[in-house]
Amino acid sequence: MHLFVLITSLVLFFINNSNALSQELPPPSVDFIEPVITPSDLGLDQEIKATDFEKNPSLPFTGTLADDDIDNTEAQTDQAFFGEESEDESTQGVPTHELELDLTVTVSFHESLLNNPAADLSLLSEPYMEIEYRVKFLLPLDIDEHKKTKEIEAEYEVKNWGSLLLNPLADCHLEIEIPEFKGELSYMLQSSYTNEESEPDIMGAFKIVFNQDNKENHFAICKDLSSGISMQTQGEQEDYLMQGIKLVEPDLNALLMESLDLAKRSSVSLQIPSTIINDTAILNDIVISGTGQLTLDPIL
Fold this sequence. Notes:
By secondary structure, the chain is mainly β. It has a domain of 183 residues. The protein is 12% helix and 38% strand. The protein contains four helices and 13 strands. The longest helix is centred in the first third of the chain and has 14 residues.
């Protein structure tokens, strides 16, 4: 159930239990095991292939498409970006550079306007609540002409302002927990030539992919303003930060640092254009925006 719906239930609880003792409940368990679908469950003797989808489009996607499958669009994108002949190098040499990401994602909540059916940003009301996420990582890299990969375990900070709900009966504030924020970095150097006699233009190719299961636990801390009763509840997990990361320009999945001087600092500015996102569980307008920077520094 969406957190805003739960808050409505809390307000009704306060009205009907104005003399109850103040209490704070621990957050409910959020453990969830995704069911694993095996080929035998689907009546198949082997892994699901692209041709199986053509024969039976109702089959669920289980992530078993091979890297060399023509229907695997992610593999196609990697091949176009990193080059057909490049291969992952499992052995990391002595780090030559450090790659730093510093990204701020802002999510603002606005009361919906009935005369704003086209989601016009200029017609938005003042936000009644804002969430600010800051994601950072600093990774030492041995960067050369070979494609390499490295695990990411990013640091993050979450701040928020305003109230989920504020009226004469109750005041509800939001608390957010993110158990972890992991991903993977792929990187290499590339060269291009304007003509046979020119010096090569060195570029850094980076692909930053954060895990889709990087979810947020949202808790509502509500207080009855007349009796002082307090209660904590939890809604469904949210993914506002991941939605913001998908909107970053230039795309973190295929980012180039052009005209690199490997002896000097290089950086790329990142931007999240203000975008209204859909949340069918509530009627309010939700806007995501942000700024950041990706920096490559030589280790001296």
